[in-house]
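WP5 quarterly update. Target: BTB/POZ domain-containing protein NPY1. Source organism: Nicotiana tabacum. Length: 614 aa.
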Amino acid sequence: MKFMKLGSKPDTFQDQGKGVRYVSSELASDVTIIIGEVKFYLHKFPLLSKSNRLQRLVSKANEEDSGEMQLVDFPGGPKAFEICAKFCYGMTVTLNPYNVVAARCAAEYLEMTEDADRGNLIFKIEVFLNSSVFRSWKDSIIVLQTTKSLLPWSEDLKVVGRCIDSIASKTSMDPSTITWSYTYNRKVAVSDRITEVGVKFPVNLESVPKDWWAEDICELEIDLYKRVMIAVKAKGRMDGNVIGEALRTYAMRWLPDSIEALVSEAHSRRNKSLLETIICLLPSDKGVTCSCGFLLKLLKVAILVGADDSSREDLIRSISLKLDEASVNDLLIPSRSPQTTVYDVELVKCLVDRFMARERSRDKNISAKSTNDFVLGHGSWLKVGKLVDGYLTEIARDPNVSLSSFIELLQSVPDSARPIHDALYGAIDIYLQEHSSLTKAEKKHLCGLMDVRKLTMDASMHAAQNERLPLRTVVQVLFFEQIRAAAGVQALNNRNSNALDSTRKTEEYWQKTLPEKHNVSKPSSVMKVKDENPQKNMKLVKKGSKNRSSGAQLLPSRSRRIFDKLFVVGKVSGNVENRSSETSGSSHSPTSMIIKGEIKSSGSSSRNRRHSIS
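Structure tokens (predicted):
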């Protein structure tokens, strides 16, 4: 908080009983000034040297031979006059945001201008206001609050306007340049850490939020708050969402929570004025306004306090723009006389109708008929459909809700907004339970609005056993469940048939591709090797035959035939390309060993022939 000290002499003002103030001095007082119920016994010379008005009043009092002067309607009262009197005496006086406006108005009343004395009180106060107070965020708010009791002086001296302009200018500044303190209870605590030496300092400091100013100006009364918000919006630099958040913060600060406090005679008029002011300050664009839940709360208050029709209409228009963001609890608006229902069903019906009309008109390429068959991907329609079904579930418990009102609200959203009818079925079931006096025709008509084909398995099972439903509806549920089950079995059979066809086609392909028999002639050297090692070859042949037979037995008959044909091809490729390894030959087939022996035998025979020739 900024302050300014004036004068250097000690303060010698003292009390003498109730309502009497005097200056302790060797000189006797020669003038008495009455401010309200307080008498000041002072001296003419220091006062007349600073105040033009006191000069005229003292001159007039001397002519009338009167030593008393009464200053009527003195701004700021006795405290403000004492500040001016101390300044005239040269005593120490401290100016701060709480008393500077009163001192400024009192100095203006006493005409303490530069004409009376150079460096007079008005000049010094103006320097303090412009150089300190209006440059401080919180001091500007404090000064603006004090101007309320000093009207019209504070308004005529443009103190109110300068305070508002100072506040609005600071709210429009870049948040990254904010260096002064502000109130923000929603701010997340700054994370701290402890260093090795035990010094604690903040890390990861958060940036200043855009709505840093919202809570501080909540201390202003509604008329001053309105002027500040108008000035903030006039700057054109503030995002509409921030303005909406500021209005929400102010409403939460001043509007009472209980219905009794809202409608009480002592506060009803004030609450009504406050609400209508907030509504007129709301941004009108859908993308830059408050949340739909907050707007619906304002609508509840508007109904309770009896706000004018224009304010209610503005709220309804704003809510209908973004009804898809609301929740069921937000729509539970109490009804007023002469309505007999617990909640205002007609109001919700109006909101839904306006929302749907706006959504239909927004897309000019879709006709009314095709709109009813709109694609399910329309997110806002789906949200409103779910919202209406939830609201129907709540009002279905009210015995005073008529069937016509229930059906009208049910039909206010198109069928495309309800891809699943489970919630609608639940609402209808509750309504039938609470309204047992319905005729069979009425029950049939109500249940006919529900599409049993859009019920899930659980809902269908419940509906099939529900005695409150008409027999026709139960039969429809059972019929479509049977169709659904048959379709599931057919789909399973189709998948199995496709799998068998795929296997059959694969086998036919291999049968066409591979030859039936492969006649491979063995070289004589192979037989020679086998004759030279009959025992070894017999063991290998038996081992390979065993492995082959055991592996084939593990395969199905069709797959076994394919395996045999692949095995024959493997023998041919091994005989031609000589790529079989010793390990594979010993563990899979005796043929690979025979081929290996053939290669070795041929090589050794060639070397022997060359040696004999040489």
